[in-house]
Structure formats: C-alpha cells, structure tokens
Amino acid sequence: MATEFHNLQELRHSASLANKVFLQRDYSDGTTCRFQTKFPSELESRIERPLFEDTVKRLNTYYAEAEKMGGQSYLEGCLACATAYLIFLCMETRYEKVLKKIGRYIQEQNEKIYAPRGLLITDPIERGMRVIEISIYEDRGSSGSCSGSSSTSGSSAR
Amino acid sequence: MSAVMIARKVRKWEKLPGKNSFCCDGRVMMARQKGVFYLTVFLIVGTCSLFFAFECPYLATHLSPAIPVFAIVLFLFVMAMLLRTSFSDPGVLPRALPEEATFIEMEIEAANGNVPAGQRPPPRIRNVQINGQIVKLKYCHTCKIFRPPRASHCSICDNCVDRFDHHCPWVGNCVGKRNYRYFYLFTLSLSLLTIYIFTFAIVHVVMRSVDSGFVKTLQDTPGTVLEVLVCFFTLWSVVGLTGFHSYLISLNQTTNEDIKGSWSGKNRLQNPYSHKNIVKNCCEVLCGPAYPSVLDRRGLTQDDLPVPASTAAQSNPVPQTTKTTAPLIPNEHTPDDAKSSIADSAISHAEKGSPSPKKEKPPTPAKVPPLASPETDVEASIIIAKEKAL
Asked: pLDDT tens digits for B238-286?
C-alpha cells in the first residue's frame, strides 16, 4: 500500500494527515534526554525497522553529546560564571550548537528517508523535548477512513 | 466592501498559556506578582548606595582603595545573577498539543483496561525505572502531559517546570532547571556582599569612633545605622538559605523533593539522580550544560498572517505593555473548530516540520532557538478557519 511521495513538496500538496505517532522519552538513565527506540506498530507498513531505529539512536547520541558532563562543559560553565554569564550574549552554548546539528540531521532524514514514505519527523524541541512526533500522511486521493481519526477521537476524549 | 488587511507580527509569547508576564517583547519572563522582587532590588541597591556614599570615601583613604572596588564588583555580580534568575525561563514545559494529549489519553485508557461503571478510574501514574529505582510519573491535568521526573506544576505560574525547585517571590520567578545555578550564585554572592558590607560598616564605625567619638560618628554617617540593621537581618536568612542550598546541591536534590521527603530514606527510597559523590553532584548542578529554553517566546506565530482588522482587535492584545491575562487555551476550543484547525495546522506544520528557514535569531539574552509553539498554530489556524467561513 506504499504511498509514494518523492519529496516534501509533493507530500505537502497531495497528502493529508492520517495519524501521528509519539515516541516517548526513555528515563531509565535519569533525566538526560533519550528517546525510546521501540518501533511503533503504526509504522510497520511504512518504514523498515533498522532505518527507523538508526534515526532514533543517532538522535539519542546527539542529545547525549549535548548534555555530556565533561571537561568542555565544565570549562564553559566556569568561564561563563567568571564573566557573570554575560558571555552567553555573544557566544553560542555547546547545547545550542548541537541542537542546530540535530535540526539539520532531522531535515536531511525527512528529505531522504521519511518524506518518500509519506512520513514526517518533527524536531523534539518543538514539542518541549518530550516526544518525537512522527506524522503519517495518506495520499489525498486514497484517504478513506484513516484521515481525521485522531481529530474525532480527540474531540470526544475532551 | 473589503476588510482592511493588516499584516501584524504576533510573537509567540503573546499566545503562551500560563500566568507569566512578559516584558521587552518576550525577552523577559517573570511571574505576575513582582512586588517582592522590587523590594529585593530596592534593598540591595539602597544598602549598597548607602555603603558607597558613607563608608567608601573614608575606607578608601584610610584603609585601601581596593575596598570600594571589590564592593562594586560584588554588587554588579549580585545584580547580574538576580536579574538573570528573575528574567529567564526556569525550564517551563509547554503544554501538550491536542494530538499528543489524545495519544496519551488513549494510552492511559489502554493501560487501565475496562473500569466498571460507578467505580473511580485508577490515578494516572506511569512507573519508570531510573537507576534501579521505581519513580512514579504523575499526570498533569492542566498541561495534559505525564510530568518528566523531577518536574512539578507551579500553581502560581500555572506551568509545569522541569527540575522544579520552588517558586521564589523574592526573585519574582520559579526556580527550575535553567535558572537554579543563577539563583544559587545570587544567594551566595548576596551572602558575601552582606557580610562584606556588615564587616566594613563596623570597621568604619570603630575606626572613626577612635578619632571622633562614637556619637559624632553616627551623626556624621547616619546611613551606617540603616546598613548595619538591614545587613544584620539579611545575614541570617540569606546565609541560612545559601547553606541549605549548598546541602541540597551536594546531594543533588531539589527543595521540592526535600519538602516532600521523596528521598528521605523511608521505604528504602534512595535518590536515583545523585552520583553519590559530592564533587560530581556540585559539578552537575553548577557547571552542567546550559539548557536551552523550549519555549520559543520571540518566534513569530504562523507565517505573518494577514489578519482582518476586526479579528485583530478582538483576539490580539496589545503587545507593548506587560501581558498579564492568560490567552486562549487551545483545549477549550469547540470540536468543530479543532477538527479543521488540526487538519490545517498539520499540513502547514509539515511545511515547517523540518527545521525551517525562519532561523532569524535576534541576539537576545535568553538565547532562544526559533521553534514552533503548540498553541499558536492552532490559534492561527482558527483565524484561517474563520476567514474561510466569512
């Protein structure tokens, strides 16, 4: 039933949102940012498991890199403290640099892997770093019972 | 007859729910009640001014010019830390979008199974294991999320805050993950400043009394009495607070956890976040990475919408003044509105789902990356839906 989209533009014009899947945070290691790599059942027919797990693992690596307590973060912290944190007005923190890297990575993954399969990953920072939201699109022509399902259940649940 | 179209830039802070007040077009974020904060500023600035006016000239000439210089440096550091604590985002967690809230509700219902009619459903709790310890995550009915570990909902600001410590009226803001180290440095430096002023005020009185007599000294420098009084009473509270927070940091605990007795050792509950090493705990809290704000306060709401004049007058409050009213909360929309808005926002969301070209990043002190805020998309889409209906 593979809905073929060749790029994000095509996705936008000819697809309608069918469903959204939310990957939750994995707190087994504490409060550091990690996402569960459990493969959601809704995506089984849309994408191969190794590709998906690869993306999530890579994201987890990036977040771990951003939050790593090591020599560099201590140095940054102490230097910033010595300048009464005024240095953050002109300098970008390491976390922000990694977030930009994550943004670029997600865009690249969307363009190369997810959009052609009718999926779209939303950057977790746009959801408060709580979830990775994956939107599932259906071709507008074939959107039958699926589309709007989340909206109807949403209104009744409220 | 055509409606006048105004392209008005609405920033996301204007649409954020919760009871915060924003200044400087979203750069500053505080709680609504700021009276005690102004008192704090007044006390610090007032006492230091008296010190510079009365003590410093005498001490600079009779002891050393380094004394006022160090006092100035310390004073500036205290003010910088205070303003940083008060004006920054403590680590507010944005509320769940309708789809996410629905998804979570469905998960809860699936987990609870069938509840017989008439029986109260079980409390919404998610158990996670952290470093071998079972931690219960509670569901927040206001924000419609399961709170991450160590997060708590502040009723004064009406937000869930990550690593919530406490709401401090003296700084006029919550103290949480993002501003805890500034808060600690503020109390520490304020303790030093208070001790410094107290000591040198006494030294000054003693030295001057030797020359001119005690009563004449007090007549010459009346400010000294006030300083000594303020410092004496401040010392006890601020130094005590610094000591308390030093203790909490060494154990990697928050005030909230300490008050609730979460890791007091009963039921064999140990703190799973502690590294069991004082130095490591201190390093993590004070020198850890600077977490970014996940609230995009200064980002523009969906695509500079051309807003019809009438709708603009109704729905958008004047942004120049401090925003004090809670804006429309998306969850209160009618089902019909929500349906069309979800569809619309999803498609347009797909347009900006991949990191968007709107990375214009004004150099703000808060250093917020440009992000989509959940509520604004729905709110803006309501306007689209209304326009279509017209």
From this structure: 999 999 999 999 999 999 999 988 887 777 778 888 888 899 899 888 8
pLDDT at residue B102 is higher than 80: yes
Residues in chain A within 8 Å Cβ distance of B143: none
pLDDT band at B119 (very low <50, low <70, confident <90, very high): confident
Which DSSP helix (H) or strand (E) runs through B234? helix B223-251
Model confidence pLDDT, tens digit, residues B327-363: 444 444 444 443 444 444 444 444 444 444 444 444 4
A-chain residues near B351 (CB < 8 A) = 12
What residues of B are annotated to the active site? Answer: 168
* Phi/psi of residue B242, nearest 5 degrees: -60, -45
Residue B69 makes CB contacts below 8 A (sequence gap 6+) with none
| Of B16-25, B44-53, B77-86, the least confident | B16-25
- Cα→Cα distances B355→A16, B13, B41, Å: 20, 20, 41
Nearest chain B Cα distance for residue A61, angstroms = 16
CA nearest neighbour of B159 among A132, A133, A128: A128
Buried b (16+ CB within 10 A) or exposed e, A121-156: bbbbbbbbbbbbbbbbbbbeeebeeebbebbeebbe
Closest partner residue to A78 among B149, B182, B287, by Cβ?
B287
Per DSSP bridges, beta strands B28-31 and B92-93 are unpaired
For tokens 């890297």, the residue is A101
C-alpha distance from B384 to closest chain A C-alpha (Å): 17
Give CA–CA dist B156/B159, Å, rounded: 8
Q: Identify the helix (H) or strand (E) that includes residue B139.
A: strand B133-140
Q: Which residues of B touch A69 (CB under 8 A)?
A: 283-284, 287-289
Q: Kindly tell me the burial class for residue A100, based on how many C-beta atoms sit within 10 Å of its own C-beta (0-12, 13-18, 19 or more).
A: middle
Q: Which pTM was predicted? A: 0.77
Residue B263 DSSP symbol: T
